[in-house]
Every structure is written in C-alpha cells, then in structure tokens.
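Notes for week 9. Today we move from apo structures to complexes. The key idea is that a small molecule is not decoration. When we ask for a structure prediction with S-adenosylmethionine present, the ligand SMILES becomes part of the input, just like the chain. The input block below holds both the sequence and the ligand string. Read it once before you look at the output, and try to guess where the molecule might sit.
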Amino acid sequence: MATAKQDPNLLIYSAPEVTRYYAALDYLTPCERLLFETYLRRGMAILDLGVGGGRTAPFLASLAGRYVGADYAPEMIAACRKKFPQLEFETANAADLSRFASSGFDAVVMAFNALDYAVPDECRLRALQEIHRVLKPEGILIFSSHNPRSIFVRPSWNPKRVRDLAERIAGGDSVLHRPVLWSLAGARVSIAVFQAVARSLTRAVRRLPTRAFWRGQGYLTDPAHGGLKTHVAVPERVANELEGFCFRLLHVLGDDYPRVSRRYVTDWYYYAFSKTQATGEK
Ligand SMILES: C[S@@+](CC[C@H](N)C(=O)[O-])C[C@H]1O[C@@H](n2cnc3c(N)ncnc32)[C@H](O)[C@@H]1O
C-alpha cells in the first residue's frame, strides 16, 4: 500500500479540509445519472472505487444488491463510515484489490476522475488489471478521465442569483424591475465572458506547451486542492488502453452533458466499458 510520503496525491486526499470537501458533496451530475441509469441494474454487486466522501454512495447503494465503497485514503473511508454507518466501506488501493475475490462485482464505478490520480502509470495499469479481475464476465466499468485538450472555458453565471438581486433592488412589480434586471444581467454576462477568456488563456498557456496536449495522453498538474498529479488522455487513447485490458467501449459522454461536448472545451469524459474476457492477465 502506498504511503502518503511515496504518493503526494494521497497526502492531499488525506488532508482534513479535502476530506471535508468531498464528504459535503451530495449530488450526481446529469452525465453520471444517465450512465448509471443506462448500465447499472437493480441488485448488482457494485464496487465504488475511489469513493472519496461518499458522494455517489446513496444512489449506488440504493440500486445495489451488494455495495462496497473503497478508497486508499483512510480519512475518506472514516468520513464515509460516519456518514453512512449502514454501508460497507474498505480502505484499499485500486492497484491492489486483493481483499476482493475475482469475479465478485457486476460493476465498478470510479467517479470524478479517481483513476487519473492513481499514479504513476504502473499504478493505473495495475488498477485496470485489478478492476478486470474483480469484475464478473460482461461486468461494467464506469469511470471518468480528464481531457488534456480542454483549453477553452465556457462563460458561466447563475441567472437565478441575478433575478433575485434585481428583485431585491427594484421589487418584483415595480416599473424599474425590467431595466434593473437587464442592466444586472448585462453586467453579469460581461464579467462571465471576461472571466472565461482569462481562464482560457491561463489554461492554454499551461497546456499548449505540454506533451500531454499534443500526444493526447500524459500527466498534468490539476490545480485542485493545491496541485494533484493527474493522468490525462483523449477518448481515443482511453479506448485503446482499455482495449488492451480486455474491455469493450460502450459509451463516451462529456461531463458537460446535456451540453454538446467539444474536443477543446469538455473538461473530462465519462466512459462505460464492459469486460470482454474471463481474465485480465497480460
Ligand atoms: C476526485 S476524488 C473523487 C471522489 C468520489 N469518487 C466522488 O466522485 O466524489 C478522487 C478519489 O480517489 C481516491 N484515489 C486516488 N487514487 C486512488 C487509488 N490509487 N486507489 C484508491 N483510491 C484512490 C482519492 O483518495 C479520492 O478520494
């Protein structure tokens, strides 16, 4: 098992503020909901690997005949056990699932890019081998992975907050309501566009000089939580790598679903694969 000293990502994920951050999350994205509802069936044995603070646990456990959440950070597992004392959680590195029997799970889920943080390459490849081993024949693997070519950031703002502010300033019925709303909306959209341009420039400066951008696969530093070493790969590379481990691609979907995913915009992609052979030994 990697120690926090050997794996800087583990050190970050073990920090109390990072554990608290993940333990406070309690939603599914539309992309996850669609893939879970499409490929997971009631009564399945599901392994939620890199479970973090248990964001996906309630949904997956409500569906599963057997649910196990696993993470290599003991602090994350402690947070999950506190939040969901009725569910099963184990401390386990994705690269060593020896505590789980072969062909024991119908599905493995690695949400929010957990596989990308299994570094170095050897750890990610070993994890894929282990996932293949613990899956039943035709078992389902759903995970997401960062897109190295995402350099454009879409402008985003919250229209409800603008409407609420306009109502507070001008009142709902006043003649001033519309002019105030339009002025606020115009200002907010301009700020959002400016922010998006600034973030896109920062990303382009960071990513364009990297091998990962041009090759379509490699490592980048994810600025989240102070800087995580992150494996990144374009969908073609992900499909090739997983094929090498006897997985068949079923579905690729941008995390920005229901928006149309764009090669240079979509931050990360979700994948559904199915296991094609009885053993993943290479
Ligand atoms: C970005 S968080 C995602 C948490 C959760 N899946 C979610 O969707 O909210 C990544 C998680 O993967 C875990 N992780 C990273 N590398 C791992 C490994 N090699 N084995 C098991 N867990 C790992 C981290 O501890 C962290 O909790």
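The CA atoms of residues 43 and 92 lie 23 Å apart.
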